[in-house]
Batch of 3 targets.
Target 1
Amino acid sequence: MIQRLIDPEEIGRFVTFVVSPYSNGFSGEALRMEGGLVPTLY
């Protein structure tokens, strides 16, 4: 966990990856971009 807010540029890179052919291995995943600030309940 990085414990900081995500920069808009990092979100843009993430979206670019998700819509690219490189992400074709992901299927129905929930991908979170919150920098480790939100506690996980599991």
Target 2
Amino acid sequence: MKCRNCKHLFITHEPKTPYGCKAFSIKSARLPEVAIKAANNGQECMGFEAKAQKKKEKDLRESKYW
């Protein structure tokens, strides 16, 4: 599981701890997946939830629609 694909990842904008996880309420200098794995004896993150996929909007000006 990768934090970059998880909906709980956020950027803190703090230089010492730039990454955060809303599921575990932590801030970390590394991606939270590394800290969670270290704390759970190598087990994958149990709070992972995939981000919702963005729907592409159709551009009706494209020639394929006319």
Target 3
Amino acid sequence: MWYGLSSIFASFLNYLLTPYLTHYMSAAVYGEMSLIYAAIPFMNVVYTYGMETTFFRFSNKDHNGRHVYNIGSISLIGTSLLFTSLLLLWRDPLATLLRIEKHPEFVTWAAAIIAIDTLSTLPFAKLRNDGRPRKYAFIKVAGILLNIALVVFFYGILPGYAKAHPASFIAGWYDPSLGAGYYILANLAMSAFTFLLLLPEFFSVRLEWDGKLWKQMIVYSAPLLIVGFGGVINETFDRLMLGWWSPAATEMGKKAEVGIYSACYKLSILITLFVRAFRMGAEPFFFQQARGEDAPKTYARVMDYFVMILCVMFLVVMLYLDIWKEFIRNPQMWVGLSVVPLLLIANMCLGVYYNMAIWYKLSHKTNAGATITIIGAAITLIINYIFIPYYSYMACACATLACYGGMMLISYFWGQKVYPIPYKAGKLLRMFGVMLLVYFFHYIVCQYVNGTGMRLLSGTAFMLIYLGYLFSTQKQELRALPVIGKFIR
């Protein structure tokens, strides 16, 4: 639990930087930063090539954990040096590809971040494998807190101090043209600080080599590399494609559209964090239940509750969007709020997909997961390639919805043939359909109502209507809950 909660908490802290960054950054600068951080996950997949999962697999099955750790670490050190050298060699072409020609140093700093994070991968995995959750959580959270402190310093304190004390040593650090670069530098400092805290684990590596074991590890990790690429395409590649093919007339306009889309994407945080928390707790629970005769029925009941919560969360965001949009402190970015409902529904579909994924894990058909992910990646690429030049970030949002919705449907129909689970599809669709109707009627009301207060009042009324619908139609399921059930008769 420590591992998952610390990661979720660290992600939540990082999300809290969004209001701060959108306050101090223009849409174009925020877009420039988003382009860089859309590319970094691709390189993370290349640099680590599934070695973390491979370490867990080999260290806990028929192999000495220390020996596997040494081989994996040496492999990552060697390949990190190789990949970083290539990135630095191709720095300028990569800067052009990412639309940051004026700041090729950003590529250098990003390469350093990726390399350091890669060297931290197996030390973090070792802490988990050795059962040291508190140190793991401390390092994760401490790194994020340092990152937040530096971002606040670079954007909120340094400019004013440099203006007031232009001749000071600290003022020499400030370069107004650096823009997104300060965020990258803060991230680099976080990565370096995290790595320093992991030095005892890193220096525990012993110089030894086992070519046969290494080949087995690489063979095992190769499919993970492919799946990793598919997952990253589904999650972040749309920002890069938007930067390349946006219909905006100028370079700054293209970056601004990336910034607007990336900022509005953050409003799906509520559902994203819930899905992550669910994955953390659900998978062990599902495997524990697998031996029972009623396991499929249990999985179906979990899906009922899961979809119920997702529907409520969707409405919490959309019915109170006047409040949530303040999370984006730059009002110029609010023009992109039309993507929010599409992205929320897309992440709902992704959550349902993760919930249903138990079928191929229990039936030992994990290649099905890879196949579905690759199909999703193909959907993302095709839709974005065709429609971004005409519809900009709306095409990205629709592609995300089509991708995750398609993955969900494929998993459902495929899974029912391999490992049938009695999901109450009709009931789930009714919950979802009523949710959409409630949002639609609220949207219509808001077209004729002026004033934030009246829109919030409308949202509250429609939320109560939906909650009343849930209590009246899902009373039996709600009674079974440990806390809420006591108040339902």
